[in-house]
Amino acid sequence: MFLDSLIVKNGEQTIREIKFHKGINLIVDYTAPNSKKTDSGNSVGKTTVLRLIDFCLDGSAKNIYSDPEFKDSNEKIKGFLTQQNICINLNLIEDIDNSDSRRISICRNFLQRSKKIQTINGEKYSNDEFSSKLKSLIFKTVSEKPTFKQLKSKNIRDEKNKLVNTIRVLSPYDTDVAYETLHLFWFGIDINQDKDELVRKQNLENRLQARLKKESTLSQVKQTLLIVDSEIERLTVKKDNFNLNPNYESQLDELNAAKQHVNALSENISRLELRKELILESIDDLNRGFSRASAEHIKKMYEKAKSLIPNLQKSFEETLEFHNNMIKEKIDFISQDLKQLDEELFADKKSLTYYLLEEERLSKELKKSGAVEELQDIISELNGFYEQKGKLTEQRSVWEKSNKELEEIEKSLVKMSNEIESKDMLIQEKIADFNKIFSKFSSKLDGVHSLLSAEPDNGIYKFSISNIEGNPGTGTKKSQMASFDLAYIAFADENKIPCLHFVLQDQIENVHANQITNLFTDLVNQVNCQYVLPVLRDKLPNDIDITHLEVLSLSSKDKFFKLS
């Protein structure tokens, strides 16, 4: 799919309408380089086009009004978007050279509940349905993984991790398994497996077993049970030698049954509370990960760094915001089992209260039966061993259940890994075909022959990029991303793999002038794609005529949302 147009409306009034074309699409900031510091290009909203396109493709609204390029205008932008009738319309087209080809029209606003607008081709969708529908329309797959947000991440390079990593474009909390699924999908291998969820369950079971080992191992539990069973057998024989009235035996059986219920419920409550504690500990660990650094202190540090590195693009506040958002999402993910645990705990504690009362009642009745003191001592000791047996039996059960769960998980993971490794020849062939394009593009752009490789590592296919010449610098890293993104679109077209035919790239100014010239005048034109770049005019080579490349011009007097 290609970008056709982006339209921003306030009610019926059109604020911006951007028409995209094939090739280079520039959002140019014409703020004069000798303007006041407050009028620099970091306040006109040149990256907003990228953020709005991302928003329409199931991105976060906060990335727009929390964008540090607006600095002190954040609250003004937030109020403008959330209190006005602002609608963002993104129109995609399957073949930009054929106006009659299939189209996707997306519309979203920033309001909530009944006023919320979230449509695809005029039809409303919930949040989950919205992402799934876009995935099926664009990437033509119904597999659960990779998610739509993961699939689009490579094409919208506007955040720190996507600006420093060519293929590791997901959040810091995504696992190697998530990358394996994504990278294989890029090359037309849809494994349709949820290895990531299995790995998360495996990690939780390993944490549970580490906690259990602090008390005792499974072997210790089994050996202790043998001794306890022997003592129960001895005391039971001794108890049976007493000649008691018939009612006493039946009442004693009822008492033992009540005690067994109490023991079983107590152990189950302990087990549930242990799992709840593990989840809460994880949440506490994550909460401590929220950065609480002083914004004022950070600002002073940033200003000092700015004086040393004039081209510094990002503020530390953005990194804090991104970091904390990722932690919050993970907290939400691991908190989803707490409600069920609390319901089970409530039910078990209610039952425990009932059997404790029964135990008390029966004990009082037995005391009235005139049993000898020696028998009571035997029964008391016997009950103690039964309580110990209940605890040990529950520990053994938890251990055995966890071991079985881990065994099943490991079997499933091995099976999945074997299925993927059986396709190794196909994977390597596809990577070889991709490298023919990638190496050619990277060599032409910056003289570095970059290569992609993949190999299994502990059951997980790991992809990496290397080059013949050595580690790239900052500028070369940006050009490597450009080479990779363009090479991938060319590769996907050759192999008929559905993909987004546009790349949104921020901070292209870090690329050397000669590389920018090659990108603008040669490389992009070799690929059936769109390359959308927000740039400062004074950072571009003066010898490039950008008139036909511009799709939007901005300045300190004409900001994106046209707010003063």
TrEMBL record:
Coiled coil segments of this chain: 248-275
Keyword Coiled coil carried by entry: yes
Keyword Oxidoreductase: no
Entry keywords, A to Z: Coiled coil
Residue span, DUF2326 domain: 450-562
InterPro entries (alphabetical): DUF2326, P-loop_NTPase
Pfam families hit by this protein: DUF2326 (PF10088)
Protein's UniProt name: DUF2326 domain-containing protein
Organism: Neiella marina
